[in-house]
Structure formats: structure tokens, C-alpha cells
Request: fold
Amino acid sequence: MTEAVLEADDIVQFLGQGAGRVQALKGVSLSLRGGELALLMGPSGSGKTTLLSILGCLMTPASGTVRIAGRSTEGADPETLAKLRRDHIGFIFQSYHLFPTLTAEENIRLALDVRGDSSRRAVEAARNVLARVGLGHKRKSRPLELSGGEQQRVAVARAIVGNAKAILADEPTGALDTENGQAIMTLLAEIAKDPTRAVLVVTHDPRTLPFADRIIQIEDGRIVGEESPNPARKASNS
Amino acid sequence: MSLKFRLASRNLFHDRLRFVATIVGIVFSIVLVTVQLGLYVGFRRMVTTMIDHAQADLWIMPTGTKCFEDPSLLDERQRFRALAVKGVTGVTPLVIGYAQWRLPTGTTTPVFMVGAELDAASLHPWNVVAGRLDDLAIPGAVAIEQSYFERLGVGAPGDTAEIRDQKVQVAAVTKGIRSFTTTPYVFTDFDRGHAYTGIPANKASYLLVRVAPDADVDDIRRDLRASLTDVEVLTTGEFRSRSQSFWLFGTGAGAALFGGALLGFIVGTVIVAQTLYSSTKDHLNEFATLRAIGSPGNYIYTVIIWQAVLNAIIGFAGAAAVSSAVVGMTADSALPVTVTPALTVGLFLLTLVMCVGSAMAAIVKIMRIDPTLVFTR
Reply:
């Protein structure tokens, strides 16, 4: 059994203020283990993005605890949370969030640069990971010169270049056609083969289902079900 | 090149129109500050130009004299008491005062007379470009500044005019001895200085004291104060400071110049702050992404400060070019804009402070950034 990379225990969170205040999460517990690709699915407003924000240390829960690589985030200040993110978490966003003025290679290097690594080795690492996502020939291209699929591959490369233990993806295929969506999910599934890494994908996209080791259903701020639809893949991992 | 610097420079140059607007704002602001402070420096120099060119270690003057142009008088016989003080090697009297210069056409214009003993170390015209200083010994001879030829109705050595119904003849012509009051200085012999200003022969405006090289100026000043009455004894530095204080702050001219400089600084700060803030707002998504991928706060602040520093460097370069032209254009004017190396360094530091200070509004905005923006935009 692989170790838990990311754990959430009895997470409660409220959003909004005054009369508009709603309880977005109502005691969610979740564990993400190394070597798995989990999908977090649920209708709009079910609390998926709020949960992803809390698991990614972008938001502090009203109550409950989050542990990343065994370390609790309770009471951590914004700078400590930022350090946890840069050391352990890689993000992939639906709208990529690449820097339009930087090249593909520079966008990837940025993830290392914020860690204080601006060495020659960082440049090599960025090139290697860019080659790994199949864009070695586009390292000098800026985001606007890349297709949506290519931009998302650069975003995946940025997420994994720092050897993050947890990759959190928010609708990574939402803006892509079938072919590019499949390519991205194949990449994420490849990453999840590493027993020290886990991938959590928030998605509505049924095309992602074949890549999942586990599907977590969330509704109205609660986890309402879990299933492991791909035991063959799981078995091949272990 | 560091990635932070690269990100900062590309953010800055990405929107060229805004970048140009920012630089124009900085240039305008710094040129305004430069002109005001350059006028201040020029004014400071100009109000003490006579003191700076006089050969004196100590100045004896009537009590309460405010500046070189102050027409108070002292008894010239105090000169001999001053000469009796041990350590004093020379005392020469100087007479100054306003007079009316009558042009050959019959019209008159005011001039400021400076009468000094020609055979002693005193205050003589400098930068003589035509005629000879020695010729001032000729009866009626005067030295004038070439830039006032038209005002004085003369054009070359040998030309004549009248002061107090007495014929004067231009014997020497100087270049660059201009008065900030625009009243021309006219140099002449000590005795004729009395005659042209109407000051009694036993009076003088100043006594210029020279002391022995090994003597202590402060000791001699103390002894002079003890032996002379109704006078003040100041070192050249003290007299310079007093004159500057009077003209710059006693008249309000300095405050006006400083006020203009402050206005320029405020305008520049607001322009840079506004553009940096709007640039930061435009790149909020990117800064939120940086924060989301774990960037420390300092990393983002450094990017913004680099943008401010780049603004400062480029803006200052533009301002320096414009200011150089202004300095050149005003070089021969009554009040030239004077930019010294120290002022240049000071202005650059001021530009940096202005631009980096302006970044604070943007940094405060970033400090409040919500990294979950990356999920909603």
C-alpha cells in the first residue's frame, strides 16, 4: 500500500458573507495515495473547486485538517502555505494560466525559479520535461503561438517539473477537443504511475473516466460515493 | 538574465502605449524637478558670485548686512584699526551701490557699481574677454559685462556713456558676470566708485581682510570684533551662507523653487503609481498564478520593483536628455539652470525613490491577492 500524499479530514468551509453565506463543504474527508489518479466529480456548486482549493493550500478551511506529505497545514501562515505548495503541489488549470510574455520553456522554469532554483540545471530540467510532454521543439514558442492542447501540455510540464507529490488539476480537458483531452489525460495517467505521486482531477468530462483509478462523487458539500472503475490499471501500477 | 527581471521587463514593454505614457510622465516630472532644482543651484551660485570671486579671508561689514548687495556703509577708517590686529596682512575697502547709467541716446538704466582698489587684492572683474584690467586705472574707465552691451548702449572697449553726469569709458569687457537681479555690474576704481554712487569718501561698504597663511582665522576674527565697533566680521563661508539664506529664503524665491520641485515629484509619483497599479491589475491573473504555484511574496514584489526600477532608469535617461538641452539653452541667461554631478546623482536617486515608492500601491494590491482567482478566471 502506498503512502498518503494528501489527506483531508472532516473539512468544513463556508463561502460568502451575511445572507449570502453558504456552507460549501460539510465535513469532507479524503485521502489521496501515491500512484493513483482520482477523479473528483459532481454537479456545479457541489463544492469541487472549494475542496480543490483547500487541498491545494490556496484556501484555509473553517474547520478540519489537511496534511500534505504528512505535514498538517493547521495554523500555517500564507507564506508557509505557499512553501507547501511549491514543495509538494503542482497545479493544472482549465484555462492554463501560462504567462503570455514568457516562452514555453520560461513558463516551466518559473515553477523552479519561485523555489530559488535558477541554475543551469533548472534550464535542463525544464527542457527535459518539455520534451517529455512532446513539446521539445516548441520551447521558444510563446503561449499565443501554441494550440490549446499544447498550452495545456506546457501547464502539465510546469506542474511536474518540480517533482510535486500531488498534482491537482481543475477541468484540465474542459477547453480541449477529444484528441487533445485524451493526450492530456494520458500524460496525467503516466505521472500517476509513479508510486510517490498522486493526481486528483476535478472534472465533468466523461471522456476522462477510462483513466481513473478512483472516482469520488461529491454533492452538496459531501462525498456521496467512491468507486474504482479501472482495477486493471490499478493492478498494473502496484 | 534572471527570470524575475525578464518577467518584469516583458510585463512593462508588453503594453507599449502604457509604457510610453509612463515614461513621458516620468520624463515630464523629472525635467520639472531638474529645472526647479537647477534654478535653485544656479540662483545659489549667482547670489554669491561676488563673494566667491573676492580675495578675502574675512569680511568686515556694517552690523546687520544681509547680503552682498546690501547698501549699508561703515567708516573706512576702521581699516587702520583692523590692520593693527596681529595676523592681518592686508585690508582693502570695497564700495558698492546703485547708480544711473546714461546711454549715448540720453536714456538711463540702473547699474550696480563695484569700486575696488586696483593695486590690491580685492574684488576685480574676471573673465575679461576684451580690453585690459590695468586700463581701469585710466580716469573714467569701467569694466562691463558683454551680455549687457545692448542695455548699456555700448559695443566695445572705448565706447562711452555717463554716470552721475561724469563721462565713463569702457576699458574692459567681461563674459559671464551676470546678475540675477538683471541689473548690470559695473566695475571701477575705488575712488570713482564713491563718485559714481555718491557715497561719501570716508565710507566703504566692506573691508576685505587677508590673514597670514599660518594664522588662525577664528582667532583673528575674535580680535577684530574686539577692536572694531558697529561692525560684523564674517568668514567668506559665513557671508556666503548669509547671502544665500537672505535671497533664497528671506525673499521666498527658494521656497518657490522647492515648491515647484515638490510639485514635479508628486506629479511623477502619482503618474508612476497609477500606471504601475493598472499594469499590476492587468496582470493580476499572472500574479495569482505565481502565488498559486507557491511563489513567495518577495518574489512577486521583486518583479514589481524591477518594473519600477526599469521605469526609473529609462525615464531618467529621457529626462537627462531633455534637461541637458534646457541647461544648454539657459546657459547664457540671467538665471541659468545649473546641474552639478551631485545634483545628477541626487535626481537619479530621487527618480528611483519616486518609482519604487510608487510601486507600493501595486504591492499592497498583490498582498491582498486571492490565489483562488486561478480557478475562477
In short: The longest helix of chain B spans residues 297-330. The CA atoms of residues 53 and 123 of chain B lie 7 Å apart.
